[in-house]
Amino acid sequence: KAGVTQTPRYLIKTRGQQVTLSCSPISGHRSVSWYQQTPGQGLQFLFEYFSETQRNKGNFPGRFSGRQFSNSRSEMNVSTLELGDSALYLCASSLGLTTDTQYFGPGTRLTVL
Amino acid sequence: GQNIDQPTEMTATEGAIVQINCTYQTSGFNGLFWYQQHAGEAPTFLSYNVLDGLEEKGRFSSFLSRSKGYSYLLLKELQMKDSASYLCAVGDSTLTFGKGTMLLVSP
Predict the structure, then answer these.
(1) pLDDT(B18) > 70
(2) B26 pLDDT higher than 90
(3) Could you tell me if A43 lies within 8 Å of chain B, comparing CB atoms?
(4) What residues does B63 pair with on adjacent strands?
(5) CA–CA dist A30, A96 (Å, integer)
(6) Of A10, A95, A102, which to mutate for an interface test with B (greatest number of B Cβ within 10 Å)?
(7) Which of A40, A61, B49, B83 is the most exposed place for a label (fewest CB within 10 A)?
(8) Distances (CA, A) of A100 to A43, A48, A84, A97, B86
(9) Mean pLDDT of B54-78
(10) Contacting B residues, span 14-73, partner chain A, CB-CB under 8 Å
(11) What secondary structure does DSSP assign to B20-50, as a single string?
(12) Cα–Cα distance measured from residue A64 to residue B46, given in angstroms and rounded to the nearest whole number
């Protein structure tokens, strides 16, 4: 079974721009969660989508948004990029229960200049 | 809210045993996960505990005490490839991660 895939793997943007990241979950998984990972803060939860609905949201500003499609693929968007948005963005998929194991994709490394 | 504490760094030698501790204070609890993350790679799942006690899986074991808000990951017969960051995560409605313990295994 193919794992979680994320595109693009690397991205360089400038302040004020917007960016869209994509995540394809493991086949059969209906939940996709997004995380931001930085050296100082570690892995921080952004949001979770299940059956095209946002089920949970972390403590991030409204510039961070996401959506999920009927095939469970998910995208996250960051608008008006700031230098502090430079991070590794990871998505993880699971079957859907909160006790289910989450499996991570390789991440998208975003650099904001 | 959730608060999860782990040591920042640990060192050990090849062939040894190391125990990585994790303490947590959380408003809800559906289980505790351990993940391994090598530099530049995605976290990979190691173990899941929901009941008190020890879960053994090969060279890795994980222990949970819900009453004490405490877990540990035990790595035996350490190998160089075990050098990585080990992340403790508590499941509630979402998964909350500790900041990770960087383990360095030396020859």
Answers:
(1) yes
(2) no
(3) yes
(4) B54, B72
(5) 6
(6) A102
(7) A40
(8) 18, 13, 31, 5, 19
(9) 96
(10) 30-31, 33, 35, 41-45, 48, 50
(11) EEEEEEES--SEEEEEEE-TTS--EEEEEE-
(12) 30
Chain B partners within 8 Å of A56 (Cβ): 93-94
DSSP string, B32-99: EEEEEE-TTS--EEEEEE-SSEEEEETTEEEEEETTTTEEEEEE-S--GGG-EEEEEEEESSSEEE--
Tokens of A33: 């969660």
User: From the first residue on, what is the mean pLDDT of each consecutive set of 10 residues in chain A (113 residues)?
Assistant: 92 97 96 94 94 93 96 96 97 87 95 97
B7–chain A Cβ distance below 8 A for any pair: no
